[in-house]
Amino acid sequence: MKSYSFYKELTPAEVGDTGTHEIYIRFPNNFDYEKFFHGTAAVNNTVIDVVFEAKDLTDNSNELLNLRFVYYVNNANKEKRMPSLGFLFRKHQIGSGDIVCLESKIIEDKVSYYIRFYRKGEIEIYPTTVFMSRNENDDVKYINNELRSEFALQQIYYGAPGTGKSHEINRLTKNKEVVRTTFHPDSDYSTFVGAYKPTSIEIPVRDVTGKVIVEDGNQVTENRIVYEFVEQAFLQAYIKAWNAYIDASEGEKPEDIYLVIEEINRGNCAQIFGDLFQLLDRNGAGFSDYPIQADKDMKKQLAKAFKGKTIADAERINNIYGKDIVAQVLSGEKLLLPDNLYIWATMNTSDQSLFPIDSAFKRRWDWQYTPICEGKSNDGLPLGWRIKANDKEYDWWSFVQRINDEIGELTKSEDKKLGYFFCKPVNGIISAETFVGKVVFYLWNDVFKDQDMGSIFHDKEDKELTFNSFYGVDAYGKAIVQENVVEMFLDNLKLTPIGVEVSDVTNG
């Protein structure tokens, strides 16, 4: 299969909001209509015209639409557009800022066209025009600097704690080259990129004349503290990505490198990224739109890393910028993210208040929501995790659903809910100790700290349970979990032990 896709954010003029009667899609001058329409254009002296059938994917009837692409060659404004779309836009209530996707596919020599719409705010397109091409193996080939993958180059997986965000990234990057880091409140530019740090090296001892001292045939050495530049996660991934290009033959797809940032909003992103922020703007080819000047220390480190190396695909990359940018990258003079460097991150919605992420930073990322759902095995079967207390076992997924209902009702918020993977079981069992230490502590300290806890934190006499109620002490003063209190807490959520009929609990 080979496919080409065009994405565009619609302007007020295109949707008829500026007083014009025409509703259309305007294409940029660099839109390659010959490639997109597979050479089906009819050409005369004034107009290049393509009439084609498209399938509206939101219409279950599978009705084919007759659409038209025109290129007004001899006009003063040589405009490429798809006209007369009023009926389609009205049907789907398409407005300014919404995004249209036009896709052509070749499957077994048959060409088909599709249209998709995305509501304003659902996805971000930058730049406006994006092209993709795939071969039969679903690998992406380079054609006129097109994008190389269906995956977003910069993507943040967000959702409630324990929804499996990191697990999903691990799944997608299995057997890939990954550099991983975690942001925290003390993270800064130097801990993310790199900096000079003291290190110990062994050097020979010399006498006053400068001669190396030798005893019993061996050089006498001593340890000395020196400062060396230490590469951190960003620079490690950056060098790996460009080295992948260096190792690749001309036209060959270089190895993908993934920089994974856990808990991205737990650090001050503006402070951590610094001027690297500009590099996050990627062009249609997947490279940074705005290369930046490397500082003196970084330039020296990069020049050392790339010394004597060349890139076979340099001409293709240089053509994007109209200058020899590759030479500047390899000399360390310029910083430029290549299209094989993916930066993916995770974020818990419950931690949004740590360091707010500004809109300028947000728009440079794709956002992938990870919903709360039951954990499944690789075979698609429920994992069936259980909570164990007082020799009774409770279904973990049932607990997650019930406690999230309570959280939603009492806090009026989705941010504090927890996901299936919030706890790690042992052989499918979440012990009472793990349950109290992880779940109850989170509920008490983070969720209901400033909220009415309702009836779930009450004992049989309707007295309020404290967090201390879940613990007792042994003869040595060591804290031990009170499993009867755990059982009481689960009963308050109206959870029935596995193997016990509901009628038995009611009658008891």
Description:
With 508 residues, this protein is of the alpha/beta class. It folds into four domains: 2-118, At1g16640 B3 domain (Beta Barrel), CATH 2.40.330; 168-182 and 232-369, no CATH class; 194-229, no CATH class; 386-507, no CATH class. It is built from 14 helices and 24 strands. Strands 1, 2, 3, 4, 5, 6, 7 and 8 form an eight-stranded mixed sheet that branches. The chain is flat, with a radius of gyration of 30 Å. The chain starts with a strand and ends with a helix. The model is unreliable at 131-150 (pLDDT under 50).
Estimate the mean pLDDT confidence. Answer: 82
Structural class: alpha/beta
- Low-pLDDT stretches are 131-150
Considering DSSP H and I runs of 4 or more, what fraction of the residues is helical? Answer: 10-25%
Compact overview of the structure:
The chain has helices at 33-36, 86-91, 165-172, 189-192, 233-247, 269-273, 296-305, 314-321, 325-330, 359-362, 396-411, 432-447, 483-492, 502-507, and strands spanning 2-9, 25-27, 42-43, 47-56, 64-72, 80-82, 99-107, 110-118, 154-159, 177-182, 194-204, 214-215, 218-219, 221-231, 257-262, 292-293, 334-335, 341-348, 366-369, 386-389, 392-395, 429-430, 471-473, 479-481. By secondary structure, the chain is of the alpha/beta class.
Quickly list its features:
single chain; 508 residues; alpha/beta; At1g16640 B3 domain; 4 domains; eight-stranded mixed beta sheet; five-stranded parallel beta sheet; 25% strand; flat
